[in-house]
Design goal:
Length: 429
């Protein structure tokens, strides 16, 4: 060994350092593989379909540049300065803003998921996400795995706890059928999967909590963008005259109307020496005077010709049935009042006022011109540039589906699922 080391050192010195680094030189690929061109998708000057070309981007996709740009944003979003020219964020056109302000189109554009009960593929906004989560409690010796809702609340308040989830129709009866039939046992779990008796009530409470969270986000967006608050009002209270017209004719003629929410103030209960009953979560639904959760009203017909189909039906939600708990209904009323205060301050900052504010003295004599308990939520191509109220409308619509509305009975061959006890079925239309 000592004799080999000196010879090895001499041989290393004899070899030049440049030859060692360039023993395996890289091939020059600049001239052999030129950059493929970008596809020309313009219809100008074209006499035949792009599919009839000898080399087209549909069949011969390898012959063109692949670059996926970000989706267009609302024009109020500022462009970043540190991005390349090809990655600059594009702004939505006017017709794209109108499509983006439609809550039904946005629900249909959500990712497709397979229902665990019906095995049908539907958009995720029409479903409830469930997950098998481990529960640690000092009352139990070993951690247990339970079936719980996951991802129903906003990610800013409560994110998903599991990376893998299963989806079921957004319907209370579908959850009951899932548990009664034992279909939930198909969910993979390292330990026996269990569920608690109040799973449906927990899902309903989280869906209502999501409405409060979306309303809070909407208020914050209105606060930071007070511009054009008079021309593009997002939330306002209907007058008693407008409310009477809606009840009489069943027609919501306000421009850009997306939903009407009737929320009267919650009466404060008198203090008593006994235990308080304000924390009761649910009012019995068997009361005869309890109004329906929502009623679909006709919208004002649009006379303008457009390729975009306008909304023909507008839901009117009753706050007493929508939020049966007095505590949560009081939070909803306070959140709506806070939103109106932000809108009022925005108009004051602009130095402008509505016609009702200018003629407030004369309107005080007319009781029909006073504000009612009905709140109008608007969303169109103009209001979405200021604040996006579509997530609030989707959260309200999900409660409607959860309580059984928005689904129609179907006993044919395409029935989604059938309750064997009463022979009823529900499927999506």
């Amino acid at each position: 060994m000592p004799r080999l080391l000196p010879k090895l050192i001499e041989s290393i010195k004899a070899v030049k350092h440049r030859q060692i680094l360039n023993r395996y030189p890289r091939k020059d690929t600049k001239g052999s593989h030129p950059k493929p061109p970008s596809p020309n998708l313009s219809p100008h000057g074209r006499k035949q379909s792009i599919l009839l070309d000898d080399v087209n981007p549909i069949i011969h996709s390898d012959a063109f540049v692949h670059h996926k740009r970000d989706a267009p944003r609302i024009p109020m979003v500022s462009k970043p300065k540190d991005t390349k020219d090809e990655d600059q964020l594009s702004e939505m056109a006017e017709h794209e803003c109108k499509l983006w302000s439609n809550p039904y189109l946005r629900m249909l554009s959500s990712p497709l998921r397979q229902c665990l009960l019906t095995e049908q593929y539907l958009p995720a906004d029409f479903m409830i996400r469930l997950a098998a989560l481990k529960i640690h409690s000092p009352r139990i010796l070993q951690p247990m795995t339970a079936l719980l809702p996951d991802g129903l609340e906003h990610s800013r308040f409560k994110g998903r706890k599991s990376g893998r989830g299963w989806y079921v129709l957004c319907n209370k009866e579908a959850i009951n059928q899932l548990l009664n039939r034992g279909t939930y046992k198909r969910i993979f779990s390292p330990t026996p999967l269990k569920f608690h008796a109040l799973l449906a009530e927990q899902i309903g409470e989280q869906l209502r909590t999501r409405v409060l969270q979306e309303l809070e986000f909407l208020t914050e967006r209105l606060r930071v963008t007070p511009q054009q608050s008079l021309d593009h009002t997002v939330v306002r209270r209907l007058t008693r005259r407008e409310w009477e017209v809606i009840k009489t004719t069943g027609l919501i003629s306000q421009s850009g109307a997306m939903a009407v929410l009737v929320v009267p103030p919650v009466k404060k209960q008198k203090q008593s020496n006994g235990p308080s009953t304000t924390d009761e979560p649910v009012i019995p639904r068997s009361l005869p005077h309890l109004p329906p959760l929502s009623v679909m009203h006709s919208a004002q017909p649009d006379s303008t010709t457009s390729i975009i189909s306008p909304i023909k039906k507008i839901p009117l939600y009753n706050g007493l049935t929508l939020f049966p708990s007095p505590v949560m209904r009081s939070k909803l009323f306070d959140a709506l009042q806070k939103t109106l205060l932000v809108e009022r301050r925005a108009r004051w900052r602009e130095g402008r006022s509505t016609k009702s504010e200018k003629q407030s003295k004369s309107r005080e004599k007319d009781a029909l011109n006073k504000a009612s308990h009905a709140y109008l939520i608007c969303a169109d191509g103009s209001t979405v540039r200021r604040a996006d109220s579509v997530p609030l409308a989707i959260a309200l619509w999900r409660i409607r589906m959860w309580e059984g509305q928005g689904w129609e009975a179907n006993l044919g061959n395409h029935a989604a699922w059938i309750d064997e006890s009463d022979g009823s079925g529900i499927s999506l239309v």
